[in-house]
Specification:
Keywords: Carbohydrate metabolism, Cellulose degradation, Disulfide bond, Glycosidase, Hydrolase, Polysaccharide degradation, Signal. Helices cover about 35% and strands about 10% of the residues. By secondary structure, it is of the alpha/beta class.
């Protein structure tokens, strides 16, 4: 009797679905190209602009992440609608609504008004994705700009990020989520590893590097390997934002000149994935080559210059 019961229990366990049924890569067929990205909308609306053919061929027809924040409206509906229209392709989403956002840079400030509001927002963000395959980058720069925050704010933010990892793990089981880890020259690898561990990187797939920055893939890979190697007793894979790193970093971060598009979205390439996380042509803020363009707004000249390295 006991043996029969034990065998029955084993059969139930064997039949139960895994928390993560499969990787989102194996569940899809290549990366999703967003027909409503900022550059795609500009291309549709400016057929007679001399820069249009180049921007269409080199940017708007490539897979680029979609960023979500307060501007997205009802967030569960927004993420659900987005992943729902990607068909067999893999969407890349960015959660960008942490309170006190861009504490050091300032150009992209904002975010949810309170920690409680953020927790409600990120829970609905994850619910909107549900069981459909996706890639999510969690809160760019949020673990890197601690030197512009006091200890209480750091602890508060770390708790919010950890909650985000828990929500994505529980509610979006076929999503590979990555905690953002800044870039190769911002925070020492050992320090960043400590921050990632405290913020719940164990709960998600791994971490992201170079979001909205310009460091080469080689430099980012070296940094990523060092961060992963400093995690306490485990390692994690990482992804690299290659949207604007074709000419590397020149010491400036806000709409610098002479930068260039990098490798388009792919698996492998030194990291688990190379992704266009930052939208090429979207301004970093009212600075550098686009002193009159607010952060997140598309500027065709910025996009055009990235194609040719101007």
């Amino acid at each position: 009797m006991m043996r029969a019961l034990a065998l029955a229990l084993l059969a139930v366990v064997a039949a139960a679905p895994a928390a993560h049924a499969a990787s989102p890569i194996s569940l899809t067929d290549g990366f999703y190209v967003d027909p409503d990205s900022n550059p795609a909308v500009w291309v549709r609306d400016h057929a007679n602009d001399g820069r249009q053919p180049a921007i269409k061929a080199n940017i708007s027809t490539k897979p680029i992440a979609r960023w979500f924040g307060a501007w997205s409206g009802d967030i569960k509906s927004a993420t659900s609608a987005y992943v729902g229209r990607t068909g067999s392709k893999l969407p890349v989403l960015v959660a960008y609504n942490i309170p006190g956002r861009d504490a050091c840079g300032g150009h992209s400030g904002g975010g949810a008004g309170t920690p409680e509001a953020y927790r409600a927002w990120i829970a609905k963000f994850a619910e909107g994705i549900g069981t459909r395959p996706a890639v999510v980058v969690i809160e760019p720069d949020s673990l890197a700009d601690f030197n512009c925050m006091d200890n209480a704010k750091i602890a508060e933010r770390t708790a919010m990020i950890k909650y985000a990892t828990e929500q994505l793990k529980a509610k979006a089981p076929n999503t590979w989520a990555y905690l953002d880890a800044g870039n190769a020259q911002w925070v020492p690898a050992q320090t960043m590893a400590t921050r990632l561990d405290a913020a719940g990187v164990r709960n998600v797939r791994g971490f992201s590097i170079n979001v909205s920055n310009y460091h080469t893939t080689a430099a980012s890979t070296t940094y990523g390997n060092n961060v992963s190697g400093n995690l306490p007793g485990y390692t994690k894979p990482y992804v690299i934002d290659t949207s604007r790193n074709g000419n590397g970093h020149n010491g400036e971060w806000c709409n610098p000149g002479g930068r260039k598009l990098g490798t388009t979205a792919r698996t492998g390439g030194g990291a688990e994935m190379l992704l266009w996380v930052k939208v090429p042509g979207d301004s970093d803020g009212k600075c550098g080559k686009a002193p009159g363009v607010e952060a997140g707004k598309f500027d065709p000249q910025l996009a055009y210059d990235l194609i040719y390295g101007y």
